[in-house]
Amino acid sequence: MTMALSSLSCSLHFTPTASARQTTHTNFPSTVHIPHNPLHKREFPLPLVASVPYQPINVDYLEGEFSGHGVTFEGVGDSCVAKMELENGSTVTLMLPSGLITSYKSPMWHGEKMELLHTTVSEGENGEAIIQGGVSLNFNFQTDDDDDEVLWSPTNWVLHDIKGNSEESIQVELINRTSEDMVELKYIVTLREDVLLSELEASNSRSLPLQMTGSILSHLTVSTPDATYAVGLERSNYCSKPPLASDFFLSPPDLGQEEGLGNKIWNLLSQKQNFPQWESSQIEGEEEDTEETDNYKHLGEQISLIYTNAPRNFTVIDRGRRNSVLIGRNGFDEMYLFSPGSGVEMYSKDAYICVGQAAHLKPILLSPKHVWKGGQRIHNPNL
């Protein structure tokens, strides 16, 4: 059962500004400084006990506190949706505390706005809203040893700051920390006239190194995968892998799922039936590198690929919608590409592809007292 996006809910929380640390990696070359009034500084204390639920935030208070930046808030019960809007018509809808971006609409050459992301909302067994697709984060932190135990997985994001204005660009900064404040991940969402930036800053204040694995996954809406092409990947190495685990990942309608786990884990039988090109060694995690020979890669077949040395920028072209999207990455060595194949109805809820900036095959090493930066850029060149 499909539900309206206005029914989505989330809670807003606030944290104080973190101290500066040593950094590595640079931001995207296209990132520009966003003017901010230093006199309008907002810092809110955390509750003393991290496990205690935060109190609901008054939406009217948020509107008054953050007015003038081009961001509005819609409350549903104890929850809210943040909408970023520029004067040129570009908009982004951001869910809190999940950090899920459910919508990115941008003006096109023909004068109308077009939705670039693909998000679905369905009703769960208990009547709850299940949101999938969009742009989502899925990261795990663990110690730098042979222990596979996950130390921390950031999921509940806290609103930290909003900068910019509706004329040029808007920047929303979210933050997530461990209960001991020893590991921190910042998520900075920036909307410009023709670009949506999703940038991360991971800080390790521990005395021991950490490993970070995971991905930024972006579901792009298309007319049909059969009319969609990835341009610029020729001579890149890739390996075929099962779809990346994520609560927000959209699976094709014919793929089975393990009961009770939604789209987070697909069962082994369904993977073998629907992706016969995966050998048993690939399902179990062994890599078999292949060189991409097509610079105009057709996405009409079912694929789930991790590219290990792809260009920092490539283009997705949709002939059906007569538009293109440029995808860029920074800080990540791996790029993920998924297509459900051409066996879906045109312009339906299953007409999408997924791209991701990932650290799946090779974890990102966070040295002690160190900050890592990386992110993704979705650029609309069709203005």
Structural commentary:
One of its GO terms (biological process) is carbohydrate metabolic process. InterPro entries: Gal_mutarotase_sf_dom (IPR011013), GH-type_carb-bd (IPR014718). It comes from Senna tora. One of its GO terms (molecular function) is glucose-6-phosphate 1-epimerase activity. The protein has helices at 59-65, 268-274, 280-283; strands spanning 22-24, 71-76, 79-85, 91-96, 101-107, 113-115, 119-123, 129-133, 135-143, 158-165, 169-177, 183-192, 195-204, 210-221, 228-231, 237-240, 290-291, 296-298, 302-307, 313-318, 323-330, 334-340, 352-366, 370-379. With 383 residues, the protein is mainly β. It has one domain: Beta-galactosidase, Chain A, domain 5, CATH 2.70.98. Residues 1-55 and 256-286 have low confidence and may be disordered.
